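Collaborator request log, item 7. Partner lab (contact: R.S.) asked for a structural prediction of NADPH2:quinone reductase to inform their binding assays.
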Amino acid sequence: MQAWLCENPVGVDALVWKELPTPQPGPGQVLVRIHAASLNFPDLLIVQNKYQMKPDLPFVPGSEFAGVVEAVGEGVRNVAVGQNVACLAGTGGFGTHALAQAATCMPLPAGFPHVDAAAFIMIYATSHHALVDRAQLKAGETVLVLGAAGGVGTSAIQIAKAMGARVIAAASSEEKCALCRSLGADATINYSEHKPSGSLRDEIKKLTDGKGPDVIYDPVGGEFAEPAFRSIAWRGRYLVIGFAAGPIPSLPLNLALLKGASIVGVFWGGFSRQEPKASAAALAELAQWYAEGKIKPVIDSTMPMSELKAAYAHMGSRGVKGKLVLVNPGA
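Returned to partner:
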């Protein structure tokens, strides 16, 4: 097999494409021939040694991939050799083959292409866990999605609309706002016109008739967090998804008191490990929604696996709409 190897986590430039022995699956594991792998923000952090999970060196980055099962280890019952699967393994995706725990693999129904499948689990499982489980979103409520044109943001728009919510999508350009509207967003906020230090709060107030959003979905953090949280409705739920802007914000807790609001952590990885049955049920529901056409990953572009470094650069430019997917030749 071949793969991008991280031997020293000092950044993308240190990654090296290498030939490695093809591993054999142990108990509970599967060997997957990778057809497609998506690029996620944690994939950048992990090669910079900035992610909460720090794998032993050397490792192959790439948290999420899809392909065909080539071998199964002892005790594997949920997938079989020759089956198409999507896997969220944390590492291993940026190569031609990878081992994954069978429990982290989602069997793919017919008609579910590998490119879509490789861009599916992380964003949709996160947004489903956030909106359905953690926020207990109800039809008719208003959701403000920050960073709405990115991978998790686009998935949040689609899931919120599938649940009957009103969606306000915030993004950094008119082009990205147009994408959000095409996905069903009822209103949009352009950060270039309404900055966190400027009129962002006023625009949120205007679009919610002064009430504020019932749920705020925040994968951005940084300077956006406090003005958004100050705008939340009574009994609102502020979903902490991630910190794509960089700095981890500090929110004045008196705001939670005054608004009767909840600050809710969302970590799908922990949820899937602690509550595997609930996680599997959520993935099954998401697969059904995909089959029904309610949700579909937004693919910014596909690139050859050999162009991983260029894909990282594109993601770092903040120009990505939806997900970037790497594909292997002949896949």
